[in-house]
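Quick one: examine the sequence and fold tokens given here and explain what the tokens say about the fold. Here goes:
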Amino acid sequence: MASDQQSVAPPLKQLPLHRSGKKLSFERRLRLWFYLIGLPGLLLSWSLLSAYSVDRAIAIILLVLYAFVWMFLVSVMLEQITRPLQTLANVVAALREDDYSFRARGAKRNDAIGDLALEINALANLLQTQRAGALEAIALVERVVDSMHSPVMAFDLAGRLKLLNAAAERTFSLKASVALGRTAKELGLERLSEASDDDLLPLENGQASRWMIKRAGFRLRGIPHTLLVLADVSTALREEERMAWKRLIRVLGHEINNSLTPIKSIAESLRVQLERTVAEEQREDFVRGLEVIEDRSESLNRFLQAYRQLMGLPAPKTAPVVVKELIERVAKLETRLRVEVKEGQGITMLADGDQLQQALINLVRNATEAARGPEEEHAQQACVEIEWFTTENDVVIVIADNGPGLTNQSNLFVPFYTTKPNGTGIGLVLAQQIAEAHGGMLRLYNRTDKSTGCIAELRLPRAMDGASLNQPRKLFESSVPR
């Protein structure tokens, strides 16, 4: 997790205790009191020397010697008093600077200075333990936030970015070293920073996703910040849409079937009656009309059956699948052109081979039709390539064509939407459902090399334990649906 350390306010300045010009320091006052205590002894010695008629010079020497001895004793006593206090002051100063390595030694109970030293040592131990716990908690929070799939960002009052995790870097194509300290407007995130709590936003980052935003306020070193956590709800919304379509299809299918069956039956009966009742010169038009009714009824029935298949996709029955063999089988099924299979790694993954084959068939069929185009002269230059490779956690299958590329990208994963004259609008939706049922994802985007065309990228977890199944992946590469 990256954060901008310059955003925090400096700690309050700790002012030392200044010596007042109107009041002597503790050491000077203590020294002065000791000198005053020794003054009666000096006067008493002078009186005794005068009483015994000691020579004046010798008396002065003795008094001066007495004064020096007393001054030495005062210095020793001051040292014994002030040194422990200075040691304790150093320990407290170290604590103030977050240095918990200093301790007062030689302290004993039932002693004023010793009790104070022991209490300061106990306070230092407590602060050290709390500091260690706080650092561990901060490290844990940073690790959790950095490992989250959901982007996490924080802005200060001026709208400058102060924190972002690895998921946010991947999602918005940012680098912490460059982005931290810049405003949301400079980063193109003003919509994000201005969004309200629980807002649902489609982010314009090339990814077919919708994000729910959670906002929270917090203070860092006294400065208010705004925390943004983004949750990708695309999969949940697609599932809700799928369930809505399923309910709609069930109702429409029931009603349409109730109409199609008698229509087809009546058309067949009318054809038989034509042979008997209609003149031969008029019969041809009636027969042609009845054939149209029967043909369109059968076509509509096929559409309904296809849609029911889309909405009734079963759960994957996983088994080891050799990726190379699967891709080669799919390539041979396309007879309109030669599908070039590029050599890749020998990979075995845990998946439902039949479902994956159906998904790849749909993708190869789409790529073939896009490459051939509606006009026959383009068929000679049509080219479709399949390759595969692995990342740290995934198997990636890439299908590339040299067609015109994607134009209308917004409705390509909408059920029943199609731009083909004879299309059903379920091929890509079915492939997407199969990918998500395997814990993977499907994304399509235009080629960026010298050739025109589209790339379909099917990304599946390579783990053999099946733990990722039925858990849609939240990958943060840019993706465009088809």
Summary: Confidence is low (pLDDT under 50) at residues 6-15, 464-482.
